[in-house]
Please model this.
Amino acid sequence: MDIVDQIRAFVATAQTGSFTAAAERMGVSNRLTSKYVAELEARLGTRLLQRTTRRVGLTPAGEKLLARAPAWLEELEELLGSVEDEARGFSGVLRVAAPLTFGEIYAADLLSRFAVPHPELSVELRLSDAYTDLASEGIDLAFRIGTLTDNTLKARRLCRFSMKLVASPAYIAEAGVPDGPEALSAHACIHDSNQRSPRWRFGSEGALREVQIASRFAVNSARVARDMALAGRGIAYCPEFVVTADIEVGRLVEVLAEVEKPVHDLHAVYLEGAVLPRKVRALVDFAAEDVKTHLLAG
Model:
């Protein structure tokens, strides 16, 4: 008889307190459940359950086995499922949330790459700069930028990225280069209003300084701020993944590159639970590698 079925029957009986309830959980007959447990006891040479007319209790040996058996079964299911997933691919729906600009520039392509080997998997990407409640909105995984404040979620840091000051060559030719952060007050600045403070921050954590800017334009999108900088409207302060490609080809010029700028964390967050669904875990692992070549490349 399969030792796995025997242990499953024992765990179900111990957790429910009866062979009848265990049989219902397993989808087998009461008689077969009792047989599995009896054969496990015979295999181990010791009694695991104390049987009464009303309820089934645990012996000391049964308590010892129950302390570890559920985790062992869970790990076995995870192993077998991962092998099956590699052979057949993931299926079902994967719901992901991300900030707007990050999602448009990177997360959509990330999910496309992840889904290629899984034709039965459907992906739903929700983009918003507002806070997303994973539990109430049915989100499997969310990408969060900056300091995490919700300690009810599990998180994995994927990477860190810095901010960059950028302007078009045409703007620099007309207005010149500021000689320091304080000189930004004399320039047309394009402010991303998703940053709560109307001042721009420079330096590192613990030694940040805020600088007053002349905010000629304000927009709640780093991507639109970058587009306005490309059009020569002023200097924008954007995450590096938004502007690196433009800097590399000369469409934008990095301003005050020698000045230290804040670094932000990118996390993948998900609901805390006993078992993380395999497709969510696979996406987290995939993203941790993908950011190295597609988000921060260059």
Summary: The radius of gyration is 28 Å. The domain at 161-263 is CATH 3.40.190.10 (D-Maltodextrin-Binding Protein; domain 2).
